[in-house]
Design brief:
Blueprint (H helix, E strand, L loop, with lengths): L9 H11 L3 H10 L2 H4 L2 H13 L3 H9 L8 H13 L3 H14 L4 H13 L3 H13 L4 H13 L3 H14 L4 H13 L3 H12 L9 H5 L3 E2 L9 E5 L4 H8 L12 E5 L2 H10 L6 E3 L13 E4 L3 H5 L29 E5 L7 H4 L3 H9 L4 E4 L4 H4 L1 H8 L3 E2 L10 H8 L4 E4 L3 H9 L3 E4 L14 E2 L3 E7 L7 H12 L2
Parallel strand pairs: 1-5, 2-3, 2-5, 3-4, 6-7, 6-9, 7-8, 9-10, 10-12
Antiparallel strand pairs: 11-12
């Protein structure tokens, strides 16, 4: 989606200012108040269509863009028409529009990039790669390099993809998608040292300093991996809860650096969990972050996400086993009809939450055919639609009012140990189950994050008790869940 740049005409300049300010409803209002002749100008129609798309009215955006005679459409008009046609679920039609546009604007880089994305959506990966290379030939920029990298990645050409992603990041260090995809390739090809180095570089970029504000505010020197020789080490977690759990297993590797004490600052909800069941011979404390951190100048600091960079440089360094141990073993839970009970989490928050979360009706249909009952381990149950899923599943879904999976991770961990296993989308539930050693099937989206990249359907961070239930052609949700329940956690 592109909005054409400012010009001297007042209506266009005014619309562009409103777009830049994010005032999309005002764009729509101002455009509607213009004289009919002005409303037919392709540049103004383009800006109006962008506002419609951003206010979730793609159907109307498509109509106004189609009203522009084909011979008068700018390249931006064609791009937005194709983008909204894809959004409306018609990628084949969008591809036809792109071919027409390229006869009018041959070699247009933005049109070629849109064509590459459209072909990828249609599963035509080789053609998407060729279109991306054509865009790259029109001019080397981060968008074209990223498109070429993504297409090479889908064609399983990891070395080519890595080179293209590196090129995109060299031109635009803030290209988040290129960094994420490159990190995934490093993980997938077991190039862990390069993955950690990339993450370390990203952490220190200006764009991420606010995210790691606690680490950067700590008034002592960074630890760079040498002997600590009796100094205290402050390990500071600034990621989400799941990542903090995952990275904390590597705290055990710090003993060989001889710290006087390791002070760990996690999400406060995790402190009790780790104080009870994280076993180590070091002097370690899980502490609340001080209101005014004033650390001794002889102390050293480390971001929790940097732990693997110093302790897990090779595949053989991963422990691949539970690390929160000693949780009391109690009688296994059983359902109302005596069936085995599996934990269930179906919803994820965050930027990619919608892609990871499951449709409730499809999920209910898949679960009701299993020879098991399910206990909700879902955090934020109201946002996740727990009441609706309960209505769809009846007594086959157990919802315990005394189990708070948003705040009480001790109670959650103790409950998980009483279950036959856990079925979850990628979220905090997976990390708690992985840490305590519960058999878990992770229902991955089509494009999982770097945490879940693996060549062997097992999660390298925790070990063989975590099965990655990948999406495969011809395999529905019922079968993915049933295979795990029947084979992995009998």
């Amino acid at each position: 989606m592109t909005a054409q740049g400012p010009a001297s005409a007042d209506p266009r300049a005014a619309l562009d200012r409103l777009m830049q300010q994010g005032r999309f409803a005002d764009v729509i209002g101002l455009y509607g108040a213009l004289p009919a002749k002005e409303r037919r100008r392709p540049a103004l129609v383009n800006t109006y269509a962008c506002a419609l798309i951003l206010t979730r009215n793609p159907g109307k955006a498509a109509r106004v863009l189609r009203d522009i005679p084909a011979g008068q459409r700018s390249a931006d008009n064609w791009i937005n028409l194709c983008a909204v046609t894809i959004q409306l679920g018609n990628p084949d039609e969008a591809l036809g529009l792109l071919e027409r546009a390229l006869t009018r604007f041959p070699g247009n880089q933005a049109l070629l990039l849109t064509k590459s994305r459209c072909l990828a959506d249609l599963g035509r990966d080789a053609d998407a790669y060729e279109a991306a290379l054509a865009a790259l030939a029109a001019g080397e920029d981060d968008a074209s390099l990223f498109a070429a990298g993504r297409a090479a990645d889908r064609l399983r050409r990891p070395d080519e993809a890595i080179d293209y992603y590196r090129g995109a990041l060299a031109l635009n260090p803030g290209h988040g998608a290129a960094a994420n995809n490159l990190n995934m390739l490093y993980m997938q090809t077991r190039r862990f040292a390069e993955a950690w180095d990339l993450a370390e570089t990203a952490m220190h970029s200006p764009a991420n300093r606010a995210h790691y504000r606690r680490y950067f505010s700590a008034g002592c020197q960074p630890w760079e991996g040498g002997p600590l020789d009796g100094r205290r080490l402050h390990v500071i977690g600034d990621q989400g809860v799941g990542d903090q759990i995952m990275m904390s297993q590597f705290l055990k590797n710090l003993g060989r650096f001889r710290p006087e004490r390791v002070c760990v600052y996690l999400d406060p909800r995790l402190n009790g969990l780790f104080e009870r069941w994280f076993r180590t011979d070091m002097d370690i404390g899980f502490l609340a972050w001080p209101r005014e951190p004033a650390f001794d100048r002889h102390d050293r600091k480390l971001a929790l996400s940097s732990l693997p960079n110093h302790t897990m440089r090779e595949a053989g360094d991963f422990p691949r086993k539970p690390f929160l141990t000693g949780i009391p073993v109690r009688e296994p839970l059983s359902g109302p009809a005596g069936r085995a009970v599996f934990g269930l989490s179906w919803w994820s928050s965050g930027l990619a939450g919608a892609e990871r979360s499951l449709d409730l009706e499809e999920l209910a249909a898949a679960l009701l055919d299993q020879e098991a009952d399910f206990l909700s381990l879902q955090y934020a149950p109201e946002a996740a639609g727990a009441a609706r899923l309960k209505g769809l599943m009846g007594d086959r879904l157990i919802v315990r009012e005394d189990l708070d999976c948003t705040n009480d991770f001790i109670g959650m961990a103790e409950t998980v140990r009483r279950l036959r296993g856990v079925v979850s989308v990628p979220n905090t539930t997976v990390h708690i189950a992985g840490a305590v050693g519960a058999a878990t099937g992770v229902l991955l989206p089509a494009e999982p994050s770097w945490r879940y990249v693996s060549n062997d359907d097992r999660m390298i961070w925790y070990g063989d008790h975590i099965a990655l239930l990948k999406q495969r052609e011809g395999v529905d949700l019922k079968t993915r869940i049933g295979t795990f329940i029947g084979n992995f956690a009998p």
